[in-house]
Specification:
single chain, 1184 residues, alpha+beta, Rossmann fold, 6-stranded mixed beta sheet, 70% helix, Chromosome partition protein Smc
Length: 1184
Amino acid sequence: MYLKELELKGFKSFPEKTDIVFKNGITAIVGPNGSGKSNISDAVRWVLGEQSIKSLRGDKLEDVIFAGSDKKKPMNYCEVSLTIDNSDGEIDIEFTELTIKRRAYRNGESQFFLNGKPCRLKDIKELFLDTGIGKDSYSIIEQGKVDEILSNNPGVRRKVFDEACGIAKYRYKKQEAERNLKNTSENLERINDIYIEIEKQINPLKNQKEKAEKFLEISGRLKELEVNSFLREINKIDKEAGEIKLALEESENKINTGEEKSKTLEKEYEDLKLESEVLDEEIEKGNEYISSIKEVIAQKESDINLITEKSNNKKREIDRKKEEIEKLSNLSEKNDEDKKEILQKIEILSSKKEELEAALEKSGAKNKEQKENIDNVEKKIDELKDNRINLLNEKQSISNNVSSLEANRDNMNQRWRTIDESTDENEKNIKNTSKSIEKEKEELGVIDSEFENIGKKIADNTNKIEEVSNKISDLEKNITDNKYKLNEFESKKKIYVEMENQYDGFNRGVKEVLKNKKLRGIDGAVAQVISVSEKYEKAIEASLAAAMQNIITEDEECAKEAIEFLKKTESGRVTFLPLNVVTPNLIDLKDVKSKIEPIGVASELLEFDEKYRNVVEGLLGKTVVIEDIDQAIQFARDTKYKIKIATLDGEILKPGGSITGGSVRNSANLLSRKRIISEYSEKIDELSASIEKEDSELKQLKEDKTKLYAEKDKLVSEKNSIEKNILLKKAEIKKLEEKISEYKTNIDKLEREKESISSNMEYTISKLKAANEKIEEIDKKSEETREEVERLNKVLEESKNIYDKDRKEFEALNIELINLNNDLKSLNSNTSRISMENENTVIRIEGMKKEIEVDLKEVELFGENIKAEELEKSNLQKEHLEANRILEDKKIKRTEFKNNLDEKSKEIKRNEREVLELREEHYKTNSKLERFKSNREGYLNKMFEQYDMTFMQASELRDDELQISKKEIDSLKREKRAIGSVNLDSIEEYKETKERYDLYSSQKADLEESIAGITKLIKELEHNMKIEFVEKFEEISNNFKNVYKKLFGGGTGELTIADKENILESDIIITAQPPGKKMKNINLLSGGEKALTAICILFAIIISRPTPFCILDEIEAPLDDINVYRFGEFLKELSQDTQFIAVTHRRGTMEAAEYIYGVTMQERAISKIISLKLQEAEKFAGII
């Protein structure tokens, strides 16, 4: 149980509707001074029944209603609603959620509501007895509660410990027992009449009840078995699901750890990679630098070698040129001799060439003519062969087509015959199926008629049930309303009767005289002997005023004895009216002249015994009653202010001109009590008769409804059976119609196929005829072509033989001419060459001599260049060695980085594999959990569908020891069906009737024994109070010692009973020894020590009797910071069992809170609630 929600509207500084939702744990409410935060704890105290406005920091009830602001008008009422979660059933009531509402109006009226229904303050107090919740309990702890513990008044402190030890309920029970004794005697007279009436009703109800009980017993057992079966399956699922959830959490943690590790490894890898890349760039640059040096060195070496080579080449060139000059001179002489011999050979060969060219020309012309003839014949033969092959291919293609056409023709003939057979069969099926449809439709018509008739019966039955249900609902509502009114009237009547009997509203002296039956001649007070209609009550009350409490006596002696009694008992003063001496004082309205018509003389508007006429006329005979104040003033003017006047609203105009009027507090109803009691008695009799009549009507209607439902079940069963037959018939007809449609479709398809076959057949036959004619034509052309090819082949062979012979002769002459031309060409070429060579040789010799001179100068320059290049090369080689050394160092370092990167990469991959495996496992586990959830939902749905129960409701039926048998469940279901219809209301009706029967049977004997029984009960209660107080006090005392050490950081605290002989009335002594000090009475401690000691006691009480919720209103305000933090930490420990709502402005308490609300007053006199975080709350409360 915990405080769920607080709703304020119009209460103090909260004019607007304000909802504050609370959760388990610790909630802090903070705000600047004067913001209205303490109004929240005042609201809780007020709604729980606080009657003392001073305790709520006010003077009168109106002070709790919003008084208005500069921009907002005052409100006429206020209300506070407190919602408590009672799902654990700690409060013994049927509701899982309780909403207590209190509403107050400016006229002083106050109302209480419990879950929306009006109730009494007493009901609220009884509801929370010994729960630790209440206006005076330790569920609301403010500085005043701390003061009560620290109070020097023993009764104040004792009250706190009585509530804490749980003995308040015994005191209440004792008082209740005494009241019950009185009430029981008043009921004795009507027991016998009721008993006889109940006896007539009980036997018929018993038979119905036994049948219903059997039904409920089976249903209850079945429900118990099935619900427990469902619960066990759900429990099994929950247990396994819980393990899976733990595994999921562990898996998620591992995955998160793995992912975090992956991020770390990747970052490390990237860092290494970045450093490695930087190093690679440096190595690359180093390599490029070394390569550039090497290239320069190589270039230098190449240049040196090139220059050296050039120098050597030049030297060799000079030597070669000198040798060449000598060779050229010898060659020139030889060439002159060769030229002469060649010219002689050319002359001989030129003559022979002319003869061969003439013979070759003649032979070539003859060969050319023969070759042209052969080519023409071969070309003609090839063309004829190609034509014949084309003809044969065309014939083969046409032959293949003919075979295909002939096969198609045969297939079409066969298919034509098959189609005719299929068409006949389909037409036969259509005929047979149509007959079946007609038969089925006839049967369907009969069933439809039956279905329509039974539908009308069900509709009539449903209308009757609805009509009866509406009547039952209206009757039940009327009965409930009437019973509520009856209870209300009886309660109110009882209050007025008790007020009348106890003389409530009378002064003490009047009460004592009226109660003392030993005094003789006491007729009663004036208010008791007169009756007045409601219309004149205010006028008469105002006129009589205090005289209503005057006591009428038989004579002066009786009055004297009563006065002596008052003096002796010191009970105050009373005015007596002895009947034998009191004289009337009556005005005659006929003598009064005024434009205003009075209602009458006050004494004439009453009813009373004639015995008291003198008294009545003496008190009211001179008072005139007028309609309103305006008429009264006019009447007074007309009568010169000589007559006492009373208005219907209670204003009084006295002789002499004084006027009394305005608003007065509700009086004690001294005049109206009798009238009100009589009115309530009449209403109670009317309602009782009405309820009895309506109960009888309701019973008859419920019986009619049961019969109607039984009739409806039978009709619905018949209807379902007929409807099933209709559906079957319609399905069968539809199936047969579909078959006919299918047969017709088949026939249409077959007809279309025949048309297609007929068209294709004509086409195929015409194609066959044309193909055969074409084949004959091709055969004829092919034979003619073959004969022509044979003739041309003979001509070609003869021509080729002649051509071959002549060709050989031509080729021989041609070869001889070619050889001769080649010889001539070679000789002419040699002649030209020798002449050219001789000219060139002379030129070359002169040129070489000049080149030798230039080459000698170049050789000398090459030697100088070689020395310069060698020096540059030596410098570059030194630079190359140094660059190589630096590069090698970096390569070694790069190798180390590469190894580290490889290792890191492997580690990342290993971790990724592990995370992937974990994710796969997590997915499988989660899928399993979803299956469990689905199964669990299935059981919950079954439970709700079958028994209209939620899981929480079903859990109340849980029995782990119950043996569940499916065989028993099936058997119970059969038994339940066999019982048939039952009247479940009969159980409650019989129970109520039997309870009344038993009650009235035993009450007479009980009443005779009640005094002895109640006396014994009171003694037992006192005994139990002592035992429970001692046990609980010892527990609280031990808790106090432990809590004291924790909050003080050491020291000792003790609680002792001052008078152990009178435990129930004894004072409680508190002693404390803070760390490093001597044991002292609490009154000798410092202010902070006192406050902390009182807090220790309150916490000790809460530990002993954990209250569902506890509101702390700045009780830690006097503590220093260290003790506030200890206070906050200890609150956390206690919040496991108790919900705490702390109104505070201390940081330590805020830090302990799980939820923080701020109270702000942005507009003067109007508070608002906002939700805050810790830092916001500290700023808000003005801490930082």
